[in-house]
Design brief:
heterodimer; A: 248 residues; alpha/beta; Rossmann fold; 2 domains; 6-stranded mixed beta sheet; 4-stranded antiparallel beta sheet; 10 helices; B: 252 residues; mainly alpha
Chain lengths: 248, 252
């Protein structure tokens, strides 16, 4: 699924460690993600997946270790640097006081990168990429369904023209059909814009449906890392338990 | 507590450093000003009218009994413009506007909107704090001028129509005109400006440091209002003391 015209950037995590009040959340995590790859971090709730993602974009500072994005160390202001990063938050993170159009065009209008007419054109283009039309553009986030909010959040991330795009639980609180649509969107966007994609989820179907590689995280440690088939074949008991868990 | 104070000082410094961007953020400042006016103008009017009235009612009979009823306008005017209008308007704004600010920013924090801004390389201080602090710093002194006028009117009305006072309008306003000078008005405006900056910074800081879901938002709002009120009353004494030597300097 790696994009043919990759504009993505590689990512390296070295001995990343983070603890809150003595509880270790990330325990010396090390991994490499290739440019243009769709990398899924899977694991049970509370395993440290979202904290890992927040470190990648500089929203959290590690206790020790380092993260290199495109060869450059991520600091506290990761959003400012040479590389364009974007993140789709679990809750969407849309500003409720702004319309969909204003939310999506926020990056361009706040930094005055384009004229208002160009911003409107780009916003319409990005919204159409996530199958949202002009009538949706004038709505406020509170008027949208959970799936639409997620898609608006993706459109907002796309406006940055990211080289690295991070998704935090993109299908949480969504029904299976909408989850499927969001999963397809992630893959389509990856092949269209070629950005390196990191997805954090505890949804097995999504993980195996979209990933080039999967890491299984539990108690802050990577227990397994490999291609989906390798993860399925793993003999690690907790991973097997996680993959086989279902109502009987 | 000291950590909180330190963070608030840093937020204040960052807001002051962001002031050159204020013109760029004029639309947001305008929206905030509109919201503040909308939320407080009617209440300010009612509050000031009755404060002026009760001042007349309490002090009028005593002054009349001592044969100095003609000084009532002076007393009401000075009390309103130097003390009651700045303090009462600031308390009103802390309760109505400051609480709303803390709740809005707190909710944005809890629902990852602030994080989203950071990932878009948008500084929350420029985007959220600056417009609010500038708007509140402009709005409160304006409200104080308005409160002065309405309070004087309330005082004059009670003075003229209460049988135990019976000070005519003309006497009341003649005394007011003789007793109040620009320095007295400026004194109240300086106080209200300082109170407003404090309310803005405290409420924005509480909002931006909210943690722990809806319960955390409630906690932030309560802390924002209580801290603002305590600081207003402490600063009121400090500023009154500091401004005393300038009473004659400001006078025109």
């Amino acid at each position: 699924m790696t994009a043919s015209q990759s504009t993505g950037i590689p990512l390296s995590v070295r001995h990343l460690r983070k603890s809150y009040g003595g509880r270790v959340v990330l325990d010396s995590l090390s991994l490499d993600i290739a440019a243009g790859e769709i990398f899924v971090m899977m694991g049970p709730s509370g395993s440290g997946k979202s904290v890992f993602l927040r470190h990648l974009i500089g929203l959290e500072e590690p206790d020790s270790g380092e993260i290199l994005v495109g060869g450059e160390r991520v600091g506290p202001n990761a959003a400012d640097p040479t590389h364009r990063l974007a993140m789709v938050f679990q809750s969407g993170g849309l500003l409720n006081s702004l319309t969909v159009e204003e939310n999506v065009g926020l990056y361009l209008s706040e930094h005055r990168l384009k004229s208002p007419a160009e911003v409107a054109r780009i916003v319409a283009e990005k919204l159409s990429l996530v199958q949202l039309g002009p009538p949706d553009a004038q709505k406020y986030p509170s008027e949208l369904s959970g799936g639409m909010r997620k898609r608006v959040a993706i459109a907002r991330a796309l406006v940055v023209e990211p080289q690295l795009i991070l998704y935090d639980e993109p299908t949480s609180e969504l029904d299976p059909l909408v989850s499927l649509t969001i999963g397809r969107e992630i893959v389509n966007l990856n092949s269209r814009i070629g950005a390196t994609t990191v997805v954090v989820t505890h949804h097995r179907d999504l993980a195996f449906g979209i990933a080039d590689r999967i890491a299984f995280l539990a108690d802050g440690k990577i227990l397994a890392l490999g291609r989906p088939a390798e993860i399925r074949a793993s003999s690690i008991p907790l991973l097997q338990q996680f993959l086989a868990a279902e109502f009987k | 507590m000291f950590r909180n104070l330190g963070e608030m000082v840093l937020l204040f410094v960052a807001t002051v450093r962001a002031l050159p961007r204020a013109w760029r953020e004029r639309r947001k400042i305008g929206e905030q000003l509109y919201d503040i006016g909308n939320a407080s103008l009617f209440m300010a009017c009612v509050l000031s009218f009755f404060i002026g009235g009760v001042l007349s009612l309490q002090s009028g009979p005593v002054l009349v009994e001592n044969g100095i009823g003609s000084a009532l306008g002076n007393l009401v005017a000075i009390a309103m413009c130097k003390e009651l209008a700045p303090v009462m308007m600031s308390i009103l704004i802390a309760g109505r506007v400051g609480s709303a600010m803390a709740a809005e920013l707190g909710s944005m924090c809890v629902y990852q909107e602030i994080d989203a801004l950071r990932t878009l390389a948008i500084n929350p201080i420029h985007f959220l704090v600056l417009p609010r602090v500038v708007a509140i710093s402009v709005a409160v002194p304006c409200l104080v001028i308005f409160a002065n006028l309405v309070g004087w009117l309330g005082g004059a009305l009670v003075a003229a129509h209460n049988d135990r006072i019976a000070v005519p309008w003309s006497t009341f306003f003649a005394s007011l005109r003789d007793g109040v000078d620009t320095g007295d008005i400026l004194n109240g405006l300086i106080k209200s400006f300082v109170f407003a900056v404090c309310i803005g910074v405290i409420c924005c800081h509480q909002g931006l440091t909210t943690m722990g879901g809806p319960r955390g938002i409630g906690r932030s709002v309560t802390k924002a209002v209580v801290n603002s009120l305590v600081l207003i009353l402490i600063l009121d004494y400090v500023l009154t003391r500091l401004l005393l030597p300038f009473d004659n300097v400001f006078s025109v």
